[in-house]
């Protein structure tokens, strides 16, 4: 739904970008825009009616799939999903389109296990590094060059985000889950073994936020490597050197050294045993809608239930004095009315 009544200049730019991008992107791993429908104005309203972008339906996104599965994704499923994601990105990049908001909730999963890249509201056409906004890509999936204030960048920002998603599938949790730009940057330094200034390319050290974010400005324990651990070493024992090599290639600090989406597809990760499964073999709940919003609502409900139970436990039972433990008689040890002798 596109709400137009508060828009001074007609259709919002994010909706225009999405329609333009999807008009050019017809691919099995990119969501299909079926139609754009304009609704009539509401009764008594002087403004325009809302518009609706109608897409093909997918019952889950990657956030929901990970949250509601009883078991972690198996290696063949991870390979299948990452290969589909790389296919979508390669198709976009060959047509000079950056997505710029790649994250699990923007990766839809159909009932048949097909991956569909969606939400192109921040997408941008490019013909090479240009003067673009740094306020793109959700924080946990934002590459270091954007955190440091780079305005000249290209499609390799999407590859970093895809690497974050890949690492999340391997590890079972987000790689850089922090609440601010500087904390995310610190987490990248920590988990990518880049706590020394020398680990960073000269090009990034010249960016506007380097003086504020650079490793030498970090807490002493982090600069000394005393906090957290190398994500690549952590995943090596469980997933093997080939998976870690692909992950490391997508999470290169220097965007010039970062692998392309096409090179991801050509990596040995996809031809070594176990091979990728077919999309239809990915276990998707056929009877449950699992999107990021559903996950947030479920977690909020659990928090409310837990808080209600906590408040219930604080209430004294009938006939019980405040602060008196259940089943405890007044005057017994532990009761507020008990006077204990002072030690001599």
From TrEMBL:
Residue segments, region Disordered: 300-344
Similarity comment: Belongs to the protein kinase superfamily. CMGC Ser/Thr protein kinase family. CDC2/CDKX subfamily.
An individual GO BP term: positive regulation of transcription elongation by RNA polymerase II
Quaternary assembly: May form a complex composed of at least the catalytic subunit CRK2 and a cyclin.
This protein's UniProt keywords: ATP-binding, Kinase, Nucleotide-binding, Serine/threonine-protein kinase, Transferase
Compositional bias of kind Low complexity: 316-334
Pfam families to which the protein is assigned, alphabetical: Pkinase
GO molecular function: ATP binding; RNA polymerase II CTD heptapeptide repeat kinase activity
Compositionally biased region (Basic and acidic residues): 300-309
Annotated SMART domains: S_TKc
Signal peptide segment: none
GO CC annotation: cyclin-dependent protein kinase holoenzyme complex; nucleus
Annotated protein name in UniProt: Cyclin-dependent kinase 2 homolog
